[in-house]
Amino acid sequence: NSGTSARFLSGIATVVDRPGASVVITGNARMRQRPMKDMVDALREHGLRIDYREGDGCPPIEIHCQGLPGGTMSMSAQISSQYVSGVLLAAPLAKAPLSLRLKEDKPISEPYIDMTLGMMKTFGVEVGRPSGNQYDVPRTGYVNPALFEVEADASASTYPLAIAAITGGTVTCEAVGCDSVQGDAKFAFLLEKMGCTVRQDASGTTVTGPPAGTLKSPGEIDMEPMTDAFMTAAVLAAVATGTTRIRGVANQRVKECNRILVMVQELGKCGVAARELED
What we know:
The chain is globular. The protein has 8 helices and 12 strands. By secondary structure, the protein is α+β, with helices and mostly antiparallel strands.
């Protein structure tokens, strides 16, 4: 049940050029409910043959191995930035240079696309950005660097930092600092708005919480640049003084579960008044 893997592998599968062969992308019951339609629609319109094995719009999908054409591809990226990353990762191996143009002015969760572009640059692929919703990818293939360091997971770092915020203690997360390309690395500055002291440098982030019981609500916050951290923020809001409204996270309904609904239900079991909004 990994949407990231399914969408990245779907992109990579399109570059395989073996007539008569195909690749099937599938998963468990929940994975077979998760959206793939915008990505599949874009690839089909670009000339690829992709079949749904069960219900339309979700895995399993069968990708027929005919190679990825170059040219211009149009795609919607309002449900998941992973559609964009999946195509970008495949594009240097297309039959000709490929230009990906988004139907919207700005994709959702853009920092994750920036991570993809940064990694591609490290592997020798310079993606052009003539506008905010266009990606021009040369047909260069990849060149392995001598060393590639994988950053620590900024989303996972939100949990120990939240412990500091709740208890009034101090926590340092190494390897997630101001040089991180991950959107969730900015989560520490949400904690600052809630009354924490934050120190962040290139090598790590340190958070010291206010005295226990004095955490304050940040009010209304747009978490679209760091959607995966919204659950941590929701728990902190439950123990903070005041009411918090989190917006910009509508895509969290189509993850491994409906994360918004689950947070409302589970916080409710703890006596917390929480309700679901459109975004």
